[in-house]
Amino acid sequence: MTTGFERDRDDVARGAKAVVVYPDTGISSRDADARLAETAGLAMAIHVEVVDRVAIKVRALQPSTLIGKGQLEALAATVRMAEAELVVFDASLTPVQQRNLEKALSAKVIDRTGLILEIFGERAATAEGRLQVELAHLDYQAGRLVRSWTHLERQRGGFGFLGGPGETQIEADRRLIRDRMARLKKELEQVSRTRGLHRDRRQRAPWPVIALVGYTNAGKSTLFNRMTGADVMAEDLLFATLDPTLRQIALPGIDKAILSDTVGFVSELPTQLVAAFKATLEEVVSADLLIHVRDIAHPDTIAQKDDVEAVLRDIGVDLSVPRIEAWNKLDMLDADDRAELLGEAARRDDVAAISALSGEGVSALLDTVAALLTSSHRRYTILLDAGDGAGAAWLHAHGEVLEQSVEGEQAIYEVRMAERDYERFCQR
Predict the structure, then answer these.
(1) How many CA atoms lie within 13 A of 411 on its CB side?
(2) Are 22 and 35 in contact (CB under 8 A)?
(3) Residues 46-56: pLDDT tens digits?
């Protein structure tokens, strides 16, 4: 019987049996069981069967295998008993560690970065998403060719008059990867320019942009669907949404706003993915307001919040941008926890306790969003010709008309609107 190790080691077969391993170094604030549960969820997201979960206390990281010799032998026995073809390490492995672990365990080994890349590769639905995932995967794979490919020790004859041994296959493959990455980066730069033009057009409109951010599986897409009436994929699944989705919504006092649903974040999000998804994440960077959707029923909700905040800092989100925390999944709390949570949320202006699934609290969230977006609005008295229907329509579309009257051939409007909208109106 051929094992996953003997098959093409760049592919993870659907239905393969997997053992999930969490090397507990004592550094992470996360509970070991929670980390194992999350990694098992990530593994199941690529349709593998998790047959065992193992937490290993690591006192000193081994450069060659990450874990100690005795721990490695015990893990090998577990893998054999489970007849596992795949071992998923909830850690970052060097190419050398990955190769040595595969030899010792006689199974395919992938680390956290490789696992997340597998998921993104399967989920990317648009041309842009596929470009981003391929770029991230090539960047990750470039340093691991010595592990992944079986033909790399062959050499080709040299060209030209001098001859010589020529370039090794691994050098040729690395060169091909570099060339492909360069082409992908050019294509993504074009995507970024196009997205920037669309963003500039929206800002000239201008409609406020609200971005939903949060840990993967926190309920962003469910909330997005609830707020917009859209049908974005929303499942109890890690990384259900990869490509950004934008829809217009109406808010109290605001005729139109743009709501953006973005890719979920995760702890130790691979740097390759942060770089590759830069064009997508620019929607977050340029947003007028962020709604941080939190799975408040999750045991690691505070650690997840910290992870999201770290990614937001990494991608350059302005700390002065207003943000609201949507404490989601109220429906999953027991009565005591729910009462305590609602009390705490009521004492804060930047929090809304909701259940995106049932709709509870979403109306109050929309009121809070509208209040924040209009907090800088001022009251203006504007005079128009009585027959200026286009001007009157503009005021109704971009501001809140408080009073209006007609004196002779002039119409007088008392309007509350943002200062930038008033300046734009004066320039029309």
Answers:
(1) 16
(2) yes
(3) 888 999 999 99
Q: What are the tokens at 425?
A: 């109106």
Is residue 88 within 8 Å of residue 19, measured between CB atoms?
yes
* Nearest alpha carbon to residue 105 among 56, 152, 151, 57: 56
> Beta 323-328 vs 245-251: how paired, if at all?
unpaired
3-state secondary structure of 107: coil
For residue 202, report the phi and psi dihedrals to the nearest 5 degrees. Answer: -65, -40
* DSSP per position, 175-219: HHHHHHHHHHHHHHHHHHHHHHHHHHHHHHTT--EEEEEEBTTSS
Q: 244 near 263, Cβ under 8 Å?
A: yes
Query: pLDDT tens across 349-386, in order?
Result: 899 999 999 999 999 999 999 888 877 677 889 999 98
Q: Is the distance from CB of 84 to CB of 101 less than 8 angstroms?
A: no
Backbone phi, then psi, for 56, in 5-degree steps? Answer: -120, 120
The three-state secondary structure class of 24 is: strand
Give the pLDDT confidence of 105-145 residue by residue, as tens digits: 999 999 998 888 888 777 776 677 778 778 888 888 776 76
Q: Is 407 helix (H, G, I), strand (E, B) or coil?
A: strand
DSSP 348: -
CA dihedral 42, 48, 54, 57 (to 10 degrees): -50
- DSSP code, position 332: G
What residues pair up with 251 in beta bridges, in sequence order? 254
Please report which confidence band the pLDDT of residue 64 belongs to, taking 50, 70 and 90 as the band edges: very high
User: How far apart are alpha carbons 352 and 366 in whole angstroms?
Assistant: 9
| Structure-token pair, residue 190 | 């074009």
Residues written for the chain: 428
Contacts with 267 (C-beta within 8 Å, 6 or more apart), sequence order: 30, 38, 303, 304, 307
Structure letter (DSSP) for residue 168: B
